[in-house]
Write a structure and sequence with these properties.
Blueprint lengths: L1 H23 L2 E5 L3 H12 L3 E6 L2 H7 L5 E4 L5 H7 L6 E4 L5 H13 L4 E5 L3 H10 L3 E3 L1 H13 L5 E4 L4 E7 L9 H4 L1 H5 L1 E7 L6 E2 L11 E7 H8 L3
Parallel strand pairs: 1-2, 1-4, 2-3, 4-5, 5-6
Antiparallel strand pairs: 7-8, 8-11, 9-10, 9-11
Helix pairs in contact: 5-6
Length: 239
Amino acid sequence: MGNYLQNMRRRRRKRLADQHAEASDQRVAVIGLGRFGSSLAHELTRRGWDVMGIDTDAQLVQRHSDALTHSAVADCTDPEVLRQLGVNEFTSAVVGIGTDIEASILITSNLLDEGVPNIWAKAISRQHGQILERLGAHHVVLPEHEMGERVAHLVTGRMLDFIEFDDDYALVKTVAPASATGVPLGQSQVRSKYGVTVVGIKRPGQDFTYATAETVIEKGDVIVVTGRTQAVETFAALN
């Protein structure tokens, strides 16, 4: 029994150590340094990540090399190149190539074959995204499509910001409609009437604060609400 408990403790310590190492591993390879890839690489570097930027265009690599931790001119459609660069040892990789769909697919496939555990891939169309998902890419991003949807919501003037998630949920910043003001949120029945939850509130001249059941929303308050996309759209349209 004593040996069993000791083994259990050792396994638990090892699991916790592995989890800590994975959480603290802030290395990422960004393959493709076009507008999307370079912007992402610079932001990750600014946040303290160890970023390797890779592209086949020597001029692009030279342009961004000073700002990144590492950079290389290389063709990652060749799996041997990935190994030589050590990308197979990274826990995260981003395929920022969009226009060359064949290269995007080949590189994503190579990263999967090498066992990179967290792969983000840019797609330029839904069809491209579906192919990447079927390959096994862990995250597929359609930046142009997603930004177009977001801006469309903002252009209507009903929302101040809009973020939609994959499972048909959205987070919206909007001016509070009159139907949600004047009484505590617990009594306003916003959730039961409109299917949304108010999670934050900002009064003019004040910082955002969390909303509670006792929070009373006033006219002119900016609120953050979440819920099904159609529900938050309908709620924001009450303005």
